[in-house]
Write a structure and sequence with these properties.
There is one protein chain. By secondary structure, this protein is mainly beta. The protein folds into three domains: 129 residues, Sandwich (Immunoglobulin-like), CATH 2.60.40; 101 residues, Immunoglobulin-like; 91 residues, Immunoglobulin-like (Sandwich), CATH 2.60.40.3620. The chain is 9% helix and 36% strand. The longest helix has 24 residues.
Length: 397
């Protein structure tokens, strides 16, 4: 009798286990038939400048919101491009696929896309291979155009007859810098200038506004270490062009944002501390901003500072003096200085015991006794920061 009862109990347990396994095997997530449209979260620039010198840099990091498919399952994303923006089956290229909600596109990739649609950074030629000029005798180029992007999301193999959602088409305006012919000046990069009542310029957008220094290895990264006011005068923003209010950078919901002239001005950055020295770091690609207090206890104040070298009018035999900022004694500038092809350095008190140099042109971070700075002939506004040895040359048009 006991054996029969044991057999019945065992059979009952096996039956329950089999049914449970069967139910698990048949489990399916129910997805929504029409998920919400996926949307980009970027603050796109009004124009993206492409150059061979910056080909390895990121041009843009495409960010998007996670769409609601009505099921807790992984989503596949595809960043797509189309030469003419039609996105037909035959005219769509998947630029990247990922399970993340972001993809970076390099300058090199944008150059390839620009070239594929017929853009070029060289002068247009006629059927006979001769260079083309306009009615004013200026060279004709086909270096400006539009690139088209969208992001598509689906569930792939995670659901039968997977629904998908596709973003609106994002138009990216590009300008491919003209190839150097050996006669042109330096390549033009984007600059950022301080404006606001926490800065030397106050809220004047054309008041010799101090520039941030661009990372020579990454044109999207900028830094500045210097004096900021606090208290009731604690706000500032960043401008790309002195004398113009747009493009204007600030904060939107705590995230770095820009008004390129087609939107709404962002909120100001705020110095929450007292007046003093701070380091700000800006990354336009990752849209991040950071401001930290800087210890000034070991700083040296110099009575004079100058540029010197074969690229300057006085060569290596004389100093061209820079002007010390009356707002911040560690910031030095010289405006409208003409330089020749060659090299130069910064030095204090006209003495070689205190000199700064680096190997990168246009912008960089000089070290004490460092190498000569390479210079391309042109007219520049030059800023030097004796706190960290940073410098930036701003071409004057």
């Amino acid at each position: 009798m006991k054996n029969k009862i044991s057999i019945l109990i065992t059979a009952f347990i096996l039956s329950i286990s089999f049914n449970a396994c069967t139910d698990d095997d048949n489990l399916r997530f129910q997805t929504v038939e029409s998920p919400e449209q996926i949307t980009f979260l970027n603050n796109f620039l009004s124009e993206y400048v492409l150059s061979e010198e910056t080909a390895s840099n990121n041009a843009e990091r495409f960010l998007w919101a996670t769409p609601d498919f009505g099921a807790p399952t992984a989503v596949n994303y595809f960043l797509e491009t189309s030469p003419d923006g039609t996105f037909t089956e035959e005219n769509t290229e998947v630029l990247a696929s990922t399970s993340e909600t972001q993809v970076s596109v390099s300058v090199s990739q944008m150059i390839d896309l620009a070239e594929a649609k017929g853009l070029s950074n060289e002068q247009v030629e006629n059927e006979d291979g001769e260079p083309v000029f306009d009615e004013n005798g200026d060279p004709v180029y086909n270096n400006i155009g539009e690139l088209f992007f969208r992001v598509r999301a689906d569930l792939g193999d995670n659901a039968e007859n997977s629904p998908e959602t596709t973003s609106a088409i994002q138009v990216i305006n590009v300008r491919w810098l003209i190839a150097s012919t050996g006669e042109e000046g330096p390549v033009s990069f984007r600059n950022l200038f301080l404006v606001g009542n926490a800065t030397a310029a106050d809220w004047n957008n054309d008041n010799n506004n101090m520039p941030l220094v661009r990372n020579p290895e990454n044109e999207d990264q900028y830094t500045f270490t210097g004096k900021f006011l606090g208290g009731d005068t604690n706000e500032f923003k960043l401008l790309e062009v002195r004398g113009q209010w747009q493009p204007q950078w600030g904060l939107s919901d705590g995230t770095l944002a820009v008004n390129d002239g087609t939107g709404t001005d962002p909120d100001a950055f705020v110095n929450d501390g007292e007046a003093g020295y701070y380091t700000i770091e800006v990354d336009l690609d990752s849209t991040t901003f950071e401001m930290t207090a800087f210890d000034t206890s070991d700083l040296t104040t110099y009575p004079s500072l100058s540029i010197i070298g074969e690229a300057t009018a006085l060569g290596w035999d004389g100093d061209t003096e820079m002007t010390q900022s009356s707002f911040d004694e560690h910031q030095w500038f010289i405006t409208g200085v003409e330089l020749a092809d060659g090299e130069m350095k910064f030095r204090a008190t006209g003495n070689w015991d205190i000199n700064w140099g680096a190997s990168t042109p246009i912008s960089g971070f000089g070290t004490m006794g460092g190498p000569n700075i390479p210079v391309t002939a042109g007219t520049y506004d030059i800023w030097f920061n004796d706190i960290d040895g940073s410098y930036i040359f701003i071409p004057v048009e």
